[in-house]
Amino acid sequence: MEEVQNLAGTQDFPRSGAEPESLLPPQNTRVLLLALVLCLTFLAYLGTLWFDFVKDDQLQILGNAFIRSWRYLPRYFTGGVWTFRRPEHPGNFYRPLFLFWLRLNYVLFGTKPWGWHLTTVLAHVGATLCVFCLARRLWADWVGALFAGLIFGLHPVHIEGVAWVSGVPEPMLALLIIPSYLCFLRSRDKAANSRLWFIVSLALFVLAMLAKETALVLPLLIFATRWMEFEPRSVRGAKVWLRRCKVGLGSALPYLLLTIPYVVVRSHSLKGFAHPFAELSVLTYVYTWPSLLWFYLRHLFWPAGLSPYYDLYYVVHPGLRSVLLPAVPVLLFSVALAWWARRSRPAALASLWLVLPILPVMNIQVFGEGEFAHDRYLYLPSVGFAILAALALRRLTIGGARLLGQPALQVAVLLVLACTMGLSTTAQSACYANQTVYIATSVVGAPGSEIVKTNLAGLLGEQGHYEEALKIYLEVIKTSPDSAYVNYDVGYAYYLTGRLEEAEYYLTRATHLMPNPMAAYFTLGIAQFKMGHYADAAGNIRQALAISPYTDNYHFALGMVLKMQGDLPGALKEFQEELAVNPDHSRAREQVAEIEKALNTNQPVGAP
């Protein structure tokens, strides 16, 4: 608790409805109450320890050669999250610290899901503690800070970032950016070791940027904080603005300077700072933002019916339901928030944490159609929302009754909120229990989504219902005939049903349409291998390997093709390469032993 108090600092901003220290519980009771909040947060997600890996987990953990050995550590800093699978198109996610996190979890737990879920939940518990410290610093009310921590810890909107292993960059970022901000404030307290606090703040900021790119909002947070904190009395008019800009920029400048090497390294590693999935007009941005902001606002206030996917798409043409109606509540909320912020400094500072972290997700073209609205993007903005909710709750002082030393109405409302949110979080997090439930929930949440339909078809294929899967794929391709991934899915479905000629047609189309067609080349090669077209099969699998040399089974497949062609030395080399990528590949090990024996004894090898 002493370390927490040091981080929160002692030079607080002005109080807003704070209780006198004499009315607060004793110190030991405070420690127990804070521990209780953290335990309740953990218990709300305890059931996730029995969850499986779903969606991206299966690729990033089970199929990621880069997290199986420390020798790949330098690659974490020279590529994107998906470089292991798509070296030629690293994407938009430069997160070396996240990859390091995956490596550590792999060392500790291997492929056992419970351990991965445990560390993800613990990261969220740590983020909840950080929110308590932040609220305590911005608003000198210990009980109010406890309320904020409880609201944040149990809020169901965090399910995607906590119940899903691949969502862990969200709590990771909070664990770094909030302490960085607090250390900056601590460095300005004119106390001992202020320079050390500042250095720690800068170091945490660097780590935060390496965890997730949203950390780039921290200089804005610091600038805005100093802007509001600075109240010159001897100057008026434009001079106030100039002085405030000077003070804000002076504080944010060291952080801005640190973003320069980050941007350079990121741009080099990703072959560009960011890669848009679509070229959108300015009007499309303007038309889409009201519905997107209304979506996020609804989920902060009423987090029910949560889903991994939602039917929310680009708005190309303005309309009453698509633009005007959602714009009204967003505008009203903005006005109310601005009014409150002008009258309460804690509310103003909390508003910064609500508004600024949501700005990066407004760049909707980097997410793609149907992918720009996810609950996990609210993880950091909900920090500000939790503090604002606690501020509002502490203003409920009707009547003189007290419970546990606090206004009874406040405690009663908080208990109702905590029970409701905790039960909702526990119940709704079940959608990440396994792949079947995950996709079923997605279908309910976004029945019109092409991504969800293809995911459903993929699940049916995994369960052996190939014809049903093919039927869905053929339905989707009618509306998206030139979709690279739909063509691949149709080709793969035909491959699974044994119609290899049809599979070859669609997979060939996919190799021409996909920006990174390694999966299409590989599956096309396997289909041609089964058709007996060994030369074509070898050529296409080599194309897949040229794009992604570290993907499981690629070298093994080429080895089998070369073996059928009679090229035993070439096959042996490929099987050995497979073992270098995946040392646990037992069939590759068997093939190495068989071919080495044949080469040493000049004996023919058997057919696969």
Description:
The N terminus is likely disordered. This protein folds into 2 domains: 431 residues, no CATH class; 167 residues, Tetratricopeptide repeat domain (Serine Threonine Protein Phosphatase 5, Tetratricopeptide repeat, Alpha Horseshoe). It is elongated, with a radius of gyration of 27 Å. The chain has 608 residues and is mainly alpha-helical. A two-stranded antiparallel ribbon has the order 1-2. The protein is built from 26 helices and 2 strands. Helix 18 packs antiparallel against helix 19.
N-to-C series of helices and strands: HHHHHHHHHHHHHHHEEHHHHHHHHHHH
Number of domains: 2
Euclidean distance between termini CA atoms:
64 Å
Question: Strand order within the widest sheet?
Answer: 1-2
What best-fitting shape do the alpha-carbon axes yield?
elongated
Stretches where pLDDT is under 50 for at least 5 consecutive residues are 1-6, 9-18
Rg is: 27 Å
Q: What structural class should be given to the helix and strand makeup?
A: mainly alpha
Task: Determine the fraction of residues in helical runs and give it as a percent range.
Answer: 55-70%
